[in-house]
Specification:
The protein is an alpha/beta fold. It has six helices and nine strands; from the N terminus they run βαβββαβαββαββαα. The protein has a five-stranded parallel sheet with strand order 2-1-6-5-7, sandwiched between helices. Strands 3-4 form a two-stranded antiparallel ribbon. It has a two-stranded antiparallel ribbon with strand order 8-9. Helix 3 links the parallel strand 5 and strand 6. Helix 3 crosses helix 4 and helix 5 crosses helix 6. It is elongated and about 70 Å long.
C-alpha cells in the first residue's frame, strides 16, 4: 500500500516512521509512506498556505490551492482513498481501517492546521475522519494513528497474523484480560483457569470476560454488538 501524507510538518513523522513494527514494515517494503509539503505548491514568493476567513473570525484557514496542487502532483492509483483529518469527520474505528486495507492501493491523508481548512478541499476527499470528540493542535497526530492502524493490518507486519483476529474490536468486543508470569504478584493471582491447561475452558473463560468487559466499560459497543447478534 502507498500512503501519501499532505503535511506542513514532514519532520513530525521522522522518528515514528522509523520505530518499532511500523519502521520494520516500511523497511521491508510492506508499505510506502510519502510526505508532501503543501508549502512547496504555494503560489506566492512567501510560500503562504493560509489566509483570513471570509466573514471574519478568529485565526487563519488553510488555503485550497496548495492542497489541491499537492494531491494532484501524486500518482493516481485506481483504488484510492483521500482522507481529511478533521474533528467534524467520521470517528475512526477498526472496521474503517480494515475496509481501507481491503479496498485501497493508495491512501492520501490531508493534515489540517490552524483554525481549519477551506471547505472546498472537501471536494477532493473521499472520507473525513476524526479520532474522537476532542480537538488537537494538528492533523499529523491522527494521521500517524491511521498510518499505524493501516500498516499493522498488512500481511507481514505482525509476526503472528492470527493475533489480529483475537484483539479488541475485531469481533465487536473488547479484548479479554491477559496475564504473564509470575502467577502471583503483590497478592494478585492469575486466574486458575488460565493455568489449567484446559484450552476449551480457557476459550470459554476468555469469551465470557470479553462480554463482561465490553458491557461494563463500553455500553455503546455492547448495545451495537447485541444488535448485530439479533440481526444474524
Amino acid at each position: 500500500m502507498r500512503l501519501d501524507v499532505i503535511t506542513l510538518f514532514p519532520d513530525f513523522f521522522t522518528s515514528a516512521l522509523a520505530s518499532g513494527l511500523l519502521g520494520k514494515a516500511l523497511a521491508k517494503g510492506i508499505a510506502q509512506v510519502n510526505l508532501v509539503n503543501p508549502r512547496d505548491f504555494a503560489q506566492d514568493k512567501h510560500r503562504r498556505v493560509d489566509d483570513e476567513p471570509y466573514g471574519g473570525g478568529v485565526g487563519m484557514l488553510l488555503k485550497p490551492e496548495p492542497i489541491f496542487a499537492a494531491v494532484e502532483s501524486l500518482p493516481h492509483f485506481n483504488q484510492r482513498e483521500i482522507l481529511l483529518m478533521t474533528p467534524q469527520g467520521e470517528p475512526l474505528n477498526q472496521p474503517m481501517l480494515q475496509e481501507i486495507v481491503n479496498n485501497a492501493e493508495q491512501t492520501i491523508i490531508i493534515c489540517g492546521h490552524y483554525e481549519g481548512i477551506d471547505e472546498r478541499v472537501g471536494n477532493l476527499v473521499t472520507k473525513e475522519v476524526s479520532l474522537g470528540d476532542f480537538v488537537l493542535t494538528c492533523g499529523e497526530i491522527p494521521a500517524l494513528a491511521i498510518i499505524n492502524g493501516l500498516v499493522r493490518l498488512l500481511p507481514g507486519t505482525v509476526g503472528k497474523e492470527e493475533s489480529l483476529k483475537a484483539e479488541s474490536f475485531s469481533d465487536g468486543l473488547l479484548d479479554y484480560p491477559q496475564y504473564t508470569r509470575p502467577s502471583v504478584f503483590r497478592g494478585w493471582e492469575v486466574p486458575l483457569v488460565l493455568r489449567s491447561g484446559n484450552h476449551q475452558e480457557i476459550e470459554k473463560w476468555r469469551y465470557q470476560e470479553q462480554l463482561k468487559r465490553t458491557k461494563q466499560r463500553r455500553p455503546d459497543l455492547w448495545q451495537k454488538w447485541l444488535g448485530l447478534q439479533d440481526s444474524t
